[in-house]
Amino acid sequence: MRTTEIKEVISRKRHYRDWCNEAILPGDRYIGWTQFDDRPSCNHLHPECMEAFEESDEKEFDNLNPRGCNCDWDDLCARCEERRAANAPEGPHP
Known about the structure:
Blueprint: E1 2-3, E2 7-10, E3 15-16, E4 23-24, E5 29-36, E6 40-45, H1 47-55, H2 78-87
């Protein structure tokens, strides 16, 4: 298998891919590369998903992880809870 250089790119179009299955929108940063087996296969990951993938023991992308995590949707995941808390709106909830 041959692989192109892994590089950080600014997206020009929408991508759904690989680790978390969340969209990468135009203007978003992502990590991208192409690998060649029988045919070319393009890979697109959010930077935080690439970090989670590199920390994991997984060798394949299976869309079984939340964005930026490698917990396979574990309800008790501390990393996911921190992300939810960081993205929560401020102020009282209606």
